[in-house]
Amino acid sequence: MRECIVARVPMRHPGDISGIERLIAEGTVAAGEIVAVLGKTEGNGCVNDFTRAYAADMLKIRLGARLGMTAEEVGERIATIMSGGTEGALSPHFVVIAIRETTGGGDDRSTANGPRLAVGASFTPDLLPEEIGRMAQVRATADAVARAIRKAGIERPEDVHWVQIKCPLLTTERINEARARGGEPATDETYRSMALSRGASALGVALALGEIPPEALCDEAIGRDMGLWSERASTSAGIELMRNEVIVLGNGQGWDGDAMIAHDVMRDPIDITAVRSVLRRLGMEPGDQLGEADSRRVIAVLVKAEPSRDGLIRGHRHIMWDDSDINATRHGRALVGGVVAAAIGHAAIFVSGGAEHQGPDGGGPVAVIARVAR
Question: At residue 109, does pLDDT exceed 50?
Fold first, then answer.
C-alpha cells in the first residue's frame, strides 16, 4: 500500500529550500520519497521570470546532494513545477508531494476508509520549438496524463481532481533554431507562446480525461476556441524546460493516509461560492471564513486565474487587459488570490495565472487538499 504525503512550507526567497530540508530532517518525508514539488515564486510570471528556474535548480542541487545524484538526475525523477507571481497577498511557498510505501492497515483498511489522496507523475519527451502550442503538444500531454493516472492507480477519470503541468515556452533563440531547421513555430511572439503552450497542455488534459472529444481539437482551436476547456487542468509555462512535467492528483483505493482532494470551477474571479463548495465536499463548514480547526486541516489550495476577455465581471467593466503597466495575468492572480484567501483564512495559496482552456473564460478550476476529519 502507498500513502501520498503532501506538505506546504514557506520560502523566504526563490532559492530558499530550508523548509523542505526541515521536512526531511524531521522525518515528515524522506528525500527519496519526493515525487514532485510545486513552487509559488515571487517573480513576474512572464517570459523572463528566472525565479522559477532558480528555485527549480536549487531544489535539484540540494536534493541531489542528499540522494547522491546530479541535479539532472534529480530532474529525471522529480517533477519540479514552479509558478511565478505572488502579487497582492499571495505568499511564496512550496508544496511537497511524496509517496511512502506503508504496511499498516492493508488493503482492507483502505477499502473500509474509502479512497484517499493518490498521485502519479509523468513527463513528455522534450518538445521541438515548432511543436509548442500545437497538436503535437496536445497529444504528448494526453499520453503523459494517461501514464500518470495509471501510476496513481486511479481507475475512473472522475476520480482525478487536479492535473498540474509545467510546460515550455518560446524564446527568440528557440524560434531561430526552429527556423534554421525549416520548422515554423506557432508564433513569433514569446509572450504569446506561453498562452499557446498552456492552452495546448490543458487541452491534452481534457483529451486524456474525456472532457473533449478528439475530433473537436485542431491546431486552429488552440488559444482561440475558449469554449473548449478542462475543469481539472492547471498549466504553467516557463523558460526552464522543453518538456511537459505532469502531476495527477485524485482519490483512489489502495492508498493509505488521511488526506483527500476535491475540486470545483470558479465561474468568474469573484466566485467564492465555488471555493466554499470544495470545502464542504471535504467535510468542512466554511461560513464566512474557515474556522481555526478546519483551516488547520487544509494542506494545499490550487487555483487557476485569468481576467475575462470581454472586459466584464458580472456586467461591470474591468481594466486588467488595458493596463500597460501591469500584465493582465498579474492582476488576475492578485484578484483571485484575495478572494480565495478570504474563504480559506490564509494566503499561502498556489494561484497560477493564464487559464487558457482551463475553466470558462474569466474563471478557472480550484482544488483543495485537506486532512479527513476524524
Answer: no
User: How many helices and strands in the chain, by DSSP H and E?
Assistant: 10, 15
Q: What DSSP character marks residue 47?
A: T
* Catalytic residue ranges: 166, 236
Coil, strand or helix at 158: helix
Percent of the chain with pLDDT over 70: 97
* Torsions phi, psi for 325 (to 5 deg): -95, -35
- Distance from chain centroid for Cα 19: 20
Amino acid at 120: G
Pair 254, 110: CB distance under 8 Å: yes
SS3 332: helix
Instruction: Tell me which H or E stretch contains 82.
Output: strand 79-84
DSSP string covering 224-274? T-TT--BSSEEEEEETT-SS-EEEEEEEETTEESSEEEEEEEESSTT-HHH
Residue with cell 504553467: 236
Average pLDDT, the chain: 94
The answer to whether residues 201 and 246 touch, using CB atoms and an 8 Å cutoff, is: no
